[in-house]
Design a protein that fits this description.
About 70% of the residues lie in helices and about 0% in strands. It has three domains: about 70 residues, no CATH class; about 110 residues, Annexin V, domain 1, CATH 1.10.220; about 110 residues, Annexin V, domain 1, CATH 1.10.220. The chain has 23 helices and no strands. With about 350 residues, it is mainly alpha-helical. It is a peripheral membrane protein. InterPro entries: Flg_Motor_Flig, Flg_Motor_Flig_C, FliG_a-hlx, FliG_M, FliG_N. This is Flagellar motor switch protein FliG.
Length: about 350
């Protein structure tokens, strides 16, 4: 008698046994499962159920698989499923004070495991750990992340630092669970809380916005001083600043018609007239605008600019500021994308 014939019909299966069968089928098919995210008690139950499975007839396997697929197809929305997961998922959207208080109430923290707080941080925050902590601590932190998250964090980490952390991974084999727990607790205390900030915008953005509205002479004085004292910060500020003379370098040709559409005709004429009589940078932006509109419109603007005669400096700067404000509004709403200075350098 063959094996298939000797198997008796399977008794009524429990939900646990069905879950174990599905896991066994997925593993046998080469699937990768993140079972470590389950509570240890459930991991243990699942292991025991899988250990109890011996031989199951094809009909029963097919019925369990079909039931599982039907349940998956019926799902229209997935949610965290428990309070801890909900806290970690929504924390970044809450006020910093409430988010910190809720994070400290998760079961994992109460049980001494602070690592879920670390792994749920934005990758930029974890990169801060990679660049600030000891190489050994960074290697352990990287080991606690999922493969996909670890790969992205490593790609965002400066090259030399990333290489040292990768090399230190070889030294983590004998790390004790208690040491990992202590490291996780320390990192959670230093990085797991949302810092209370006095300003919503970064320093570069704040200074860039101020200099955007500052008279050109003073703006150039400040930028020249920054170039001497902090070249890296100066570069970031220049990227945050957008003035009329930046149009030729930062705006794409096809976006020009859209950029000037919201600018009143008289204001545009004054801006072009002032720019054409300004320095080489202003002239370049004016010509860039005129070369990317229809020939009829460009001719009309030139004629009107010539008839406008001499434009007072204050009036010219105000008109050019109106043009750049209209462009910045399009950038802020995502209608157009502004090129950075680095991109402009690569194109030249």
């Amino acid at each position: 008698m063959n094996m298939q014939m000797s198997m008796s019909p399977s008794p009524e299966l429990t939900r646990r046994r069905k879950a174990a069968m599905i896991v066994q089928m997925l593993i046998s098919d080469g699937g990768e499962l993140s079972l470590s995210q389950l509570p240890e008690s459930l991991q243990e139950l699942l292991t025991r159920e899988m250990g109890a499975i011996k031989l199951v007839d094809r009909e029963t396997v097919s019925a369990v698989a079909e039931e599982f697929l039907s349940a998956v197809d019926a799902v229209g929305l997935t949610a965290p499923g428990n309070e801890d997961a909900a806290i970690l998922a929504i924390a970044d959207h809450l006020s910093p004070q409430l988010a910190d208080r809720l994070r400290k109430q998760t079961a994992s923290v109460r049980n001494g495991d602070h690592w879920p707080l670390i792994t749920s941080l934005p990758n930029e925050r974890i990169v801060a750990i990679m660049t600030s902590e000891s190489i050994e601590v960074c290697a352990i932190t990287l080991s606690k992340l999922s493969v996909a998250q670890a790969a992205e964090v490593l790609s965002l980490t400066p090259g030399d630092r990333a290489r040292k952390i990768s090399l230190a991974m070889s030294q983590t084999a004998d790390t004790s669970p208690e040491a990992v727990r202590i490291i996780g607790k320390g990192l959670a205390e230093d990085y797991g809380q949302t810092p209370a900030l006095a300003f919503e915008r970064a320093p570069v953005q704040r200074l860039g916005a101020i200099l955007n509205s500052t008279k050109s002479d003073r703006r150039e004085e400040v930028l020249e001083s920054l170039d001497n004292d902090d070249p890296a910060f100066a570069t970031d500020v220049r990227n945050a600043i957008f003035t009329f003379k930046d149009i030729v370098h930062r705006i794409k040709e096809l976006d020009i018609p859209n950029c000037i559409r919201a600018v009143p005709g008289e204001t545009l004429t004054i801006a072009i007239a002032a720019a054409l009589k300004g320095d080489d940078h202003l002239k370049a932006s004016a010509e860039f605008i005129l070369s990317n509109v229809s020939q009829r419109m460009a001719t009309q603007i030139r004629d009107d600019a010539m008839e406008a005669g001499t434009i007072k400096k204050a009036a010219g700067e105000e008109a050019m500021g109106s043009v750049t404000n209209a462009i910045r509004e399009l950038v802020d709403t995502g209608t157009i994308t502004m090129r950075t200075l680095d991109e402009e350098d690569e194109d030249t």
